[in-house]
Amino acid sequence: MDKSGSSENNFLAVDVGNTSVDAAMFSNGGAPVDKWRAEGHVEVPLEHSDTLAGVLAESFSVVPQSAVVGSVAESRFSLSAAKAVENAFGLKPLMADCEMETGLEIVYENPGELGIDRLANAAALFSLTGGACIAVDLGTATTFDCVSSEGTYLGGAIAAGFDSFRKGLTLGAPALPVVPAEFPRSVLGSNTRDCIKSGTMFGYALMVDAMVKSLSSKMDSVPRVFATGGFSGLFSDRCETFSTTDPLLTLKGLVIILIKNGKLFSL
Questions:
Q1: Where in the chain is the domain with CATH 3.30.420.40?
Q2: In the prediction, which pLDDT does 36 show?
Q3: 117 tagged catalytic
Q4: What does DSSP assign to residue 200?
Q5: pLDDT tens for residues 253-263?
C-alpha cells in the first residue's frame, strides 16, 4: 500500500509513559485507524529516535497530517519521541502540555504539576460523557481524575500502581512467595499463595472502588467512571464502580488537545 495515497486526513497521538509508549492513528472523524504499544522501560526504543521512527513507520498503514506527543517521562525521552515522529512522517508534532486549551476549566492549585496524561484522560472523558466523570488510569501509578458536570477539572488522587502494590509485599517480606497476577477462586484464601492473591488482587480492586466512591461523594452529581491504562483489562470486571473501560482514553485526550489548539489539518 502506498501510504502517501490516502485521501483521508489522519492524525497521530503518542503517549510516552514511565514504563510504556502507546500510539494510535485516528481518522478525522475520531475513529482509531491503527494502534501500537511498546512495554518495558522507556529507554527502549526511546533511547534511539531513529529506531522508534522505523517502528512507527512500519506500524501504521497511513501517514498522519498532524501529530501530538504527550509525555510524563524525562525530557530527553519526550524530545526523542518527537524526533521519531518527525523522522517517520516528516512533520513536527505538537508537544502537549498542561498550559494548553483542553476544553476544561482548571481549578487545580498548580496546573503545571499535573501530568499531561491525567489532563488528557479528563478532557477525553468529559468530551465522551458531557457530564460529571472520573477517569481511573491503572498504569505505573493509579490516578483518579474528577471533572464536574459543568466541565471543571477538580483534581483527584494518586496511588501506587498495581505492579508496585503487588511487588511491594514481597520486597518487604521476601520470605513470601511471588505469585502470578490472577484472582483466586475465593476472597477467603485457604493456602498462602491464594491468601497473597486475594490480598493483592481483591485488595487492589477494593481500594480502587473505595477511592472512586469517596471521590464521588465530593462531586456535584453522580459521575460516570471510565478505566484506562495497562491494568484496566485485568480489573474491568472486578471493580464495581467502572462504567466501562477505554484503553485509548489518554490518546483520545491528546487528540482533543490537538484539535483545541488548532493543529489539525482539517477541523
A1: 3-95, 105-253
A2: 83
A3: yes
A4: I
A5: 999 999 899 76
What count of Cα atoms within 13 Å lies in the side-chain half-sphere of residue 208?
Answer: 35
The x, y and z cell numbers of residue 22, run together, are 502507546
Q: Model confidence over 170-217: pLDDT tens digits? A: 898 999 999 999 999 999 999 999 999 999 999 999 999 999 999 999
Separation of CA 83 from chain center: 21
**Which homologous superfamily does the CATH classification assign to the domain defined by 3-95?**
ATPase, nucleotide binding domain (3.30.420.40)
Sheet holding 66-71, edge to edge: 32-39, 20-27, 10-16, 66-71, 94-95
CATH tag for 105-253 (out of 3.30.1050.10, 3.30.559.30, 3.30.420.40, 3.40.220.10): 3.30.420.40
Decide: residue 67, CB within 10 A, 0-12 exposed, 13-18 middle, 19+ buried.
buried
Q: Are 208 and 136 in contact (CB under 8 A)?
A: yes
CA of residue 137 relative to chain centroid, distance: 6
**Of residues 117, 137, 209, 246, which has the active-site annotation?**
117
Task: Give me the phi and psi of 230, to 5 degrees please.
Answer: -60, -25
* Cell 502494590, located at residue: 165
CA atoms within 13 A on the CB side of 60: 31
Cα-only R_g, the chain: 19
Instruction: Look up residue 12 and give its DSSP letter.
Output: E
Determine the residue type at 10: N
pTM of the model: 0.91
Closest to 247 (Cα-Cα) out of 30, 36, 19: 36
Low-confidence ranges of the chain (pLDDT < 70): 1-8, 29, 39-48, 263-267
Asked if omega into 223 is within 30° of 0 (cis), the reply is no
